[in-house]
Design brief:
alpha+beta, Beta-lactamase Inhibitory Protein, Chain:B, domain 1, 3 domains, two-stranded antiparallel ribbon, 4 helices, 27% helix
Amino acid sequence: MMKISRRVSLGMAAVLSTAFIIGNSIAYAYDPPKVIKDVAGFPISCSIYASQAEIGGVRAGITPGKVKSILGEPSHIHDDKGKIRYYYDGLILKFIDYGGEEKTVLRNIKANEKCKYTTSDGVAVGMSEEILTQVYGMADTVYIEKYTVPKLNEEQNDEYERRMNRTIYTYNAGQKLAMNFMVRYGIIIDMQINMQD
């Protein structure tokens, strides 16, 4: 009798812990955006967590050594007076050197159309813009660039529209950290993560 009640107790504990974990995961995925002040003092909403602002497993704020331990050696390194760039298949990482190797940190991550890497949530260049709402919800800001040249005819303006118009969806992770997705004709053509000073 004691063994049966102990098994039931252990079984109930396992069920309750699973329900607690699943319940927390769902709550985590649907947390409302928090509103904070940005660097200039404007109110901004933050819809993602810092852990989501990653491409290829790297995030802003880490050292070149940490990047190499994750992605290996870059195909090319460009050093321009303390502004260091690492190049990986369609991924450009920009570091700023604040006066020594220990102070060099990753500030900008950019993925272009050649990039084989995804965000930590599986979003990649080449996907439809609809994936952004499905994965991250409504963007914190949406910036639309639309070009019109009044002196050109309609056909020439259509060419401008195809080549120049774009929409940028921004998801803030905090006051100084944001993830941007550039979209043209409904397709993600560029992803960036920026960390400000």
